[in-house]
């Protein structure tokens, strides 16, 4: 037991001398510099504009049906069945708008994810490659992991990652 303790005490300074190499990278800055990001955003804007135009058509149709309903509701000569039908049209129009908004948002989110995923993967691959090349034990992403303090021995790999990506 004493020998084991003696070996442990002798090995402790050697373990302390082994330095852990830590680096940081700002993946958000890299992401913002990617040319593919601007192209993806342009595609998303085009789809968003189409959805917006369709939404405006739905909204105009809804507004017209609502105006018809209000006019018939205020007119005592309009039969109750017509008032009821117009009220149903207003409710159906509202449901259509809500369903359209939900479907459009889901589609836009899916498109955004599919367009941005290859960009994020390229950045992640570049971070791994730079980390491996520099033989870093740990690379922290300051965009996702808040770093309260980074000493002088911590290296910022953001420029190296950008260079790896050709930016």
Folded structure, characterized:
The structure is a single chain. By secondary structure, the protein is mainly alpha-helical. Helices cover 74% and strands 6% of the residues. It has five helices and three strands; from the N terminus they run H-E-H-H-H-E-E-H. The chain has helices spanning 2-17, 27-33, 35-74, 80-133, 158-164; strands spanning 22-25, 138-141, 155-156. It has a three-stranded parallel β-sheet, covered by helices on one side. The model has no long low-confidence stretch (mean pLDDT 88).
Summarize this structure as a short list of keywords or feature phrases.
167 residues; mainly alpha; Protein Binding, DinI Protein, Chain A; three-stranded parallel β-sheet; 5 helices; 74% helix; elongated
Q: What does the average pLDDT come to? A: 88
Based on secondary structure, the structural category is: mainly alpha
Oligomer: single chain
Return the CATH topology.
Protein Binding, DinI Protein, Chain A
* Unreliable residue runs: none
Largest sheet: 3 strands, parallel
Give the CATH H-level superfamily.
Skp domain
Order of helices and strands: HEHHHEEH
User: How many helices in DSSP terms?
Assistant: 5
């Amino acid at each position: 037991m004493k020998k084991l303790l003696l070996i442990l005490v002798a090995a402790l300074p050697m373990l302390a001398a082994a330095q852990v190499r830590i680096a940081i990278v700002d993946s958000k800055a890299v992401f913002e510099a990617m040319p593919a990001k601007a192209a993806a955003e342009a595609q998303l804007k085009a789809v968003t504009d189409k959805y917006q135009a369709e939404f405006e058509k739905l909204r105009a149709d809804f507004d017209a049906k609502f105006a018809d309903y209000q006019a018939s509701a205020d007119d005592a000569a309009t039969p109750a069945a017509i008032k009821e039908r117009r009220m149903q049209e207003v409710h159906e129009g509202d449901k259509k708008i809500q369903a359209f908004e939900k479907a459009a948002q889901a589609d836009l989110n899916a498109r955004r994810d599919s367009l941005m995923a290859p960009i994020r993967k390229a950045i992640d691959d570049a971070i791994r490659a730079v980390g491996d090349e520099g033989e870093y034990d740990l690379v922290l992403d300051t965009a996702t992991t808040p770093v309260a303090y980074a000493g002088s021995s911590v290296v910022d790999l953001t420029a190296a990652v950008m260079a790896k990506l050709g930016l």
